[in-house]
Design a protein that fits this description.
Length: 329
């Protein structure tokens, strides 16, 4: 079986490539010339140097594939929405165009629980309508990407499955976890209301990879959307203090009210936009959501349709994550 994984040089994509290769698949990816492909080379992944926006390259590669897992994305919490659309929507359109008329077994699109409204969530299901407009470019473009991919499913019969993972953690994350640890060391982390008791929508990277293969093996998943988390009640305090305990860091001891944090976020973002700042202010809508909102989402549909049962519990997942970080930081 042949698989194209976009974003395979990244955190989630690298774990996907590792698992596909271990199962004997022929794995291909597209990587920019400057990307670090050492892991992929060790795995025997076929690397095509180029860019996801290269439609000619996509038209050449896609016909040879049985499965596509689209995990490439521009991520972040700051910057013009068009910069995010260029990668998360327009490049996706080119990939979908290349899939028209092909005999694909499955096209798995990696979305995000961030597509839901920026409010408290308590067991929110996939039935909830998504907001037409989000406050940041990443989540806005991810909503638009989902709309686009479902349109191609309806109009052209492309066998898509949309997965909405929560906050993904695990070994080899060289972006989000290191930044969080850096901020903890600098005493910049605050719980925003609730003293960290509100839920965080965690998912260990191996659990996410497990869900991908469940979706591939179930034809009933085609055309469906699934929320994915660890399926455990993990609070923000539990998540952050687990990091602090592992690395002997001071634990956050301040929790300004959420209403004050909302005002500060609005003001900081407004000032940054006035200055046309390229770097995110200390508070953004995404950080407000991460540190202040209750993020509890139902995974009952994935359990029912896919037989999804998280394979790795939160405590073990964090032990593995912190052990890797201490060896590789």
């Amino acid at each position: 079986m042949r698989c194209l994984i976009t974003g395979a040089t990244g955190f989630v994509g690298g774990h996907l490539a590792e698992e596909f290769a271990s199962r004997g698949w022929q794995v291909s990816t597209i990587a920019r010339p400057a990307s670090d492909t050492a892991l992929l080379e060790r795995l025997g992944v076929t690397i095509h140097r180029g860019d996801l926006s290269d439609n000619a390259l996509l038209q050449k590669l896609v016909p040879d594939m049985d499965v596509i897992v689209h995990s490439a994305a521009k991520v972040g919490d700051w910057g013009p929405v068009e910069d995010y659309r260029a990668v998360n929507v327009h490049a996706l359109r080119g990939l979908l165009d290349a899939c028209k008329g092909q005999n694909l077994r499955c096209f798995i699109h990696m979305s995000s629980l961030g597509v839901y409204a920026a409010r408290h969530h308590h067991g929110t299901t996939e039935e909830e309508p998504l907001p037409a407009k989000h406050a940041d470019g990443y989540t806005q473009s991810k909503v638009e990407a989902e709309q686009l991919i479902m349109q191609y499913y309806r109009d052209f019969g492309i066998p898509v499955v949309v997965l909405r993972p929560g906050f993904v953690y695990g070994p080899r994350d060289r972006t989000v976890m290191p930044k969080l640890i850096e901020n903890l060391r600098a005493h910049k982390v605050r719980y925003l209301g609730g003293w960290g008791k509100r839920a965080l929508n965690t998912i260990y990277v191996e659990n996410l990879v497990h869900a991908v293969f469940l979706a591939l093996d179930n034809p009933k998943a085609v055309g469906q959307i699934y929320n994915l988390t660890d399926g455990e009640a993990v609070s923000k305090r539990q998540f952050i203090e687990t990091i602090c305990d592992a690395l002997s860091l001071d634990k956050p001891n301040k929790s300004p009210p959420l209403w004050i944090a909302r005002i500060l976020t609005w003001w900081m973002e407004r000032q940054a936009r006035k200055k046309r700042a390229t770097k995110a202010p200390r508070l953004t809508q995404a950080r407000l959501k991460f540190l202040g909102l209750n993020l509890d989402f139902s995974i009952e549909k994935a359990k029912r349709d896919l037989g999804y049962r998280p394979q790795v519990g939160f405590q073990h997942g964090m032990q593995e994550t912190m052990a890797w970080y201490k060896q590789n930081a």
